[in-house]
Amino acid sequence: MKRVEGLGACPLGIGCWALGDAKMWGDQDEKAGVDAIHAALDAGIRFFDTAPAYGGGTSEEFLGRALAGRHEEAVIATKVSRADLAPRDLRRSCEASLRRLGTETIDLLQVHWPNWEVPLEATVEEFARLREEGKIRTFGVCNFGPKDLGDWLKEGGAQTTDQLSYSLLARGIEKEIVPLLLENAMGVIAYSPLLQGLLTGKFSSPEEVPPERARSRHFSGDRPMARHGEGGCEELTFATIDRLRKCADAYGMEMGAMSLAWLMQQPAVRIVLVGVRSRQQLERNREALSIRLDEEQIHELDEVTRPLLEAMGSEADIWGSPSRMR
Ligand SMILES: NC(=O)c1ccc[n+]([C@@H]2O[C@H](COP(=O)([O-])OP(=O)(O)OC[C@H]3O[C@@H](n4cnc5c(N)ncnc54)[C@H](OP(=O)(O)O)[C@@H]3O)[C@@H](O)[C@H]2O)c1
Fold it and tell me: What is the model's pTM?
C-alpha cells in the first residue's frame, strides 16, 4: 500500500507542467523527459504533480506513458480546473484524468484555483464520493488563501495540503497562510520553487527572461503575457538573485540546490515540487536532498530576500492583480 498520508517519504517532488505544455515551455524531448522521471523514481523521488490544464491534458498523458509499468512506485497528484468544480464536471474531469494517466486511482486530486461561484460544499461532497469509490485516495487544494481555507475547513474539506507558489523570491504566503495551515495540521506543497528557473541563475538579466516566464508580479505589467498591470520589481529581483548567488558560492553549493534546500527546511513545507526536463536537471536538483542549511545560513537567506518580500507584499498570488486568491 502506498503512503499517501505522508505524500511519500521524500520531500522532493517532480512537477510535470513543462513536460507536456509546449506552448508555455517550448518543445520537450520525449526521451529526455521519460529519462528524468525514471531517474527520479530510481532516486526514491515518488511524488509527481500534473494537471488537466497543462497542455490540455498532454502533461497527464506524458506522465501516464512515462510511468508505464512503474505506476505502483509513484504517488500521483493531479488537479481539477476551476471551471470544473461543480459535482458532475468534477467527476468527468477526474475520470478523464484517470484515463490519461493510465491508472485506477489518483493519489491526490487538488482544486487548481478557487471558483467563488461554485458552492464549495457540493465540491467537497463530490470529492468524498470519489474517495469512497476508490477513484482518488485523498484530495486537497491549490492557491487557497485564508478566507478560502477557512471555508474549505468549515465544509469538511480534507486537511491535507495547499499547493502554493513559494520560493526564496516569493515568500508572500508566510504571513497569513502558513500559520493557518500549521494550526490546522495542513501543509504546503511548494510550486515554482526555482521561480521557473530564475533561481538556477540561467538568466543574467531581466531582458533575457522570455515572456512566458515574465508573467509574475516580479516583472513589469508591460511584459507581453503579464496580466497583473503592476510596475514589477525587476531590478530588485535580479539584485536579490546576485546576492543569493554570492551566498551559495560562500556555502559551497549551487544556488538552485540551496534554494530547494531552504524551502525543504521551512516549517509547513511537505513537498517541494520542482519542474525538470532532463536527467541532468534532476541530478542537479537532487543535490538539495543532501544539504542541511544551518540556522545562520537560513537567517542570512531570509534577510537577503526580505527587501523583495517587502516590495512584493504578503499577496500570495504571484501572477494576478487583482488577486485570484483571498
Ligand atoms: N498549482 C498551481 O497553480 C501551479 C502553478 C505553477 C506550477 N505548479 C506545479 O509546480 C511545478 C514546478 O513549478 P514550475 O515548473 O512552474 O517552476 P520551477 O520548478 O521553479 O522551474 C522549473 C523549470 O526550471 C528549469 N530548471 C529546473 N531545474 C533546473 C536546473 N537544475 N538547471 C537549469 N534549469 C532548471 C526547467 O526549465 P528549462 O529547462 O526550460 O529552463 C524547469 O522546467 C510545475 O511543474 C507544476 O506541477 C503548480
Answer: 0.97
Q: Determine, yes or no, domain membership for 35.
A: yes
Structural domain including 34 reads 12-201+255-294
Q: Determine phi and psi for 12, rounding to 5 degrees.
A: -100, 135
CA 116 – CA 109 distance, rounded (Å): 19
Q: Cα(169) to centroid of ligand 1, in Å?
A: 14
Residues ≥6 apart with Cβ < 8 Å to 272: 11, 12, 13, 190, 193, 260, 263, 264, 288
Q: Is 202 in the pocket of ligand 1 (CB under 6 A)?
A: yes
Domain for residue 248, yes or no? no
Cis preceding-peptide flag for 52 (omega within 30 of 0): no
Q: What is the per-residue pLDDT across 98-154, written as a single tens digit (0 to 9) for each? A: 999 999 999 999 999 999 999 999 999 999 999 999 999 999 999 999 999 999 999
